[in-house]
Amino acid sequence: MEKKYKDIIVGSVLAVLSVAYLLLSFQIKLTNIDRVVGSRMFPQICGTIILILSVCLIVGGVQKAKQAEPEKAGEKKNYTRTILVLGSYALYIFLMDKIGFTVSSILYLFSQMVVMGKWPSSRKSMILYLVIAVAVSAVIYVMFNNVFMLILPKAGWF
Prior knowledge:
flat
């Protein structure tokens, strides 16, 4: 598969999956409590956002494919960042029950920003990544506990 068509293919697959997700969300049964905001609302919002973003990806991919130069035959691909992203995600899932949502989310967000950011990272950007990771994790934790009244995983020592 040529590199210039990847966004179109990924966007198309994502669009099909989001349409299937949206259709399946209508099968969620509503209860008597679900008058204004029902059990279907959040999945439908997510499905709609994913569909819109996948259409944007397809449109951007078509524009990029028109401008792209042919791929060089001997070009070496680097999958280091992809492996690091998937590895940190697997570690995040593993650590969630061990050290709790907040700490594991801070570590995960920080690692993702380091991996996806400009290499090598400066000390200033590392501090910024850490501040963002702590702030986002804290806001999510407070929202889920105090606003949505949902309990997030906690560590045994927490």
